[in-house]
Amino acid sequence: MARKEAEKATSAGAVAGPGLTLAAVAVVQFMVSLDLSVVNVGLPEIADGLGFGAAGLTWVIHAYALTFGGLLLLGGKAADRYGRRRVLLGGLGLFGLASLLGGFAQAPGQLVAARAAQGIGAAALAPAALALLTSTFPSGKPRIRAFGVWSAMNAAGGAFGVLAGGLLTEYAGWRWVMFVNVPMAAVALALALRGVPGDRATARGGRPDVLGAVLATAGLTLLVFGVVRTDRYAWTSPVTLTTLALAVVLLAAFVLAERATAREPLVRLGLFANRAVAAANGYNLLLGAAMASAFYFMSLYLQRVLGNGAAMTGLMFLPFALGVVAGSVIAIKLGYRVAPRTLLVGGGLLTAAGFAWFGLISADGSFAVDALGPSLVASVGFGLCLGPVVSTATAGVAPEETGTASGLLNSSRQIGASLGLAALGTAAEHRTGETVTPASLNDGYALGLDLSALLLVAAAVIALTVLRRGGASTGEAAHPPAPAHPETATR
Predict the structure, then answer these.
(1) How far is CA 273 from the centre of its chain?
(2) How far apart are CA 307 and CA 441, in angstroms?
């Protein structure tokens, strides 16, 4: 009898373990997603409070997105080598501390530095959390449900962050868009300590390639900086051409360093031979560029053109939040019968249709006429995409590379967000012109939204042409194991 009770307890623990892991990962993803969007609504007040210029203000977003995107590969590799739980806990601690310091910033440079530190923390915890989810739910219906929950929390964090940002900015001050992360990080840390079991490193070999991470981050920073500065220096000017050329050199050096390093490569280039990995990352790059830009333009349109306050703007994003959650639930239901390829194509095109509808905004419009309908269409389409793109990017990847694959996917999203916001923001500013009026701002934002729609059409084309048909929940066949590292092959 005692034996049966022991077996029952063991069985209950096995059931409870994945549930606790899913809960911890979901809270972490909600926090990371909320952090990016909670700042957007407060940008005008942040600019007034600290004295940011128009171009400099975008670096409140870029500083986070670049360190997050540029260091995600290193974070994923560290999670594989040193243990996902350990890296997750360290990232949460840094994220919370940087949020606290950012709330006390007294100058633009201090806030940008705090946002960069937040990005470093997020670069550690995000791939570790996603790798835990991938290893805990390797296949079948539990995997579909788990990634559905993950995508719903991702969407809810991003959209409800806009609501929280509006309320906090208007009634408590812009500094609280930074302070709000501190208690959330503490709660996430407690949940991770309780809900995430200890794990061993799945990858062995040399130390992660820090040089590669430095080259990638520096190259991407220069690339975005060169695009952002086209508001002052033309695309053909010596300043812009030199900056972009240096960025290309650094990124090329990163590729060469990955091929020749004697340490553990930051990312094994052969991983891109997996069609699912390549297609999902290309899709995610364009999805990140379109979504970050659209959120930015719509937030500014509702405030600077329609004249709404920060709190009201946050409330106006609530239908978008609910639509994304609804799309994620629909994706779970369809995921049992429909291939991820179909959901990615359909979701991308539906989101593109919503953004094209957004592009019809007018300077004398209203939320009900110009924003509500497009919000519902675009948000449901976005929700359809989120879970399938993550599941596709990590399906068939060897266990010792799940952290790297997770970091790669998060990296493509954040890099896309940064580059998309830089390029589309510059295009919108050129369309607006030197005379800033509600009408001229409206024209610039409309152009940016139209371009966002085109990016999503391109993403749908990638999914349609690169991904194979079928494979509703399993993705591509398992990728062959990574070749032994030079340092370990001789041992």
Answers:
(1) 23
(2) 12
Structure tokens at 397: 């990847």
C-alpha separations of 261 from 209, 236, 254, 267, 406 in Å: 8, 35, 10, 11, 22
Residue 491's pLDDT is 32
Name residue 208's beta-bridge partners: 264
Instruction: Report the distance separating Cα 34 and Cα 36, nearest Å.
Output: 6
Phi-psi region of 174 (alpha: psi -120 to 50; beta: other; left: phi over 0): alpha
Helix (H, G, I), strand (E, B) or coil at 199: coil
- Integer Cα distance of 85 and 92 in angstroms: 11
Distance CA 409, CA 412 (A): 5
Q: Which tokens in the block code for residue 13?
A: 């623990």
Identify the pLDDT of residue 349: 96
Burial of 200 (C-beta count, 10 Å sphere; 0-12/13-18/19+): exposed
pTM over 0.90: no
- Classify residue 18 by its DSSP letter: H
Handedness of CA 465, 468, 470, 472 (dihedral sign): negative
pLDDT in tens, 218-267: 887 787 777 767 667 777 889 889 999 999 999 899 888 877 776 667 77
Residue with tokens 């948000």, as numbered in its chain? 379
Say which residues have a Cβ less than 8 Å from residue 16's Cβ, sequence separation at least 6: none
pLDDT-derived band at 30, boundaries 50, 70, 90: confident
pLDDT value for 205: 55
Contact present, 388 and 336 (Cβ < 8 Å): no
Q: Which amino acid is at 200?
A: R
Residue with tokens 């049966």: 4
Lowest mean pLDDT across 334-343, 411-420, 458-467:
411-420
How far is the C-alpha of 146 from the C-alpha of 132, rounded, in Å? 11
